[in-house]
Amino acid sequence: MEIISxxxxxxxxCAAILVDAYNAPPWNCQWTSEKAHQYLAELVGHRDFVxxxxxxxxxxxxxxxxxxxxxxxxxxxxxxxxxxxPAFQKKGYGKKLLQYSxxxxxxxxxxxxxxxxxxxxxxxxxxxxxxxxxxxxYVFMFKQLNx
Length: 147
Description:
Layout: E1 2-5, H1 11-22, H2 33-44, E2 49-56, E3 59-70, E4 75-84, H3 93-107, E5 112-115, H4 123-129
Parallel strand pairs: 4-5
Antiparallel strand pairs: 1-2, 2-3, 3-4
Helix pairs in contact: 1-2
């Protein structure tokens, strides 16, 4: 097992993992390789991007992508995506990616890791198990536009 920092050269591996993970249950999305690559390129292109990919015997297994933020109280690492290929799920790879991100944060004076997830899917329990706290004061809101 190897964890390395994501660069643009890893985008095709990351896109393949994203499609594999999010097109499977419970998400059942319909990502294409092209859209996944475009989406991840936008994340990697962020000025304060931070991301890591995990390999198992040279096979891409999962990735975590985020960006650093400054808040009035501290520096934060906003986790935008964490996904693990279904073939590698339930083997500790998600935990390893989160721990690696925590270690990165500690080494870079980042005091808070922040993420958003769906509390009605099993991944919510995973984040609770990893000691993430539900922030009751925040809600995720959206407005659908008719184009």
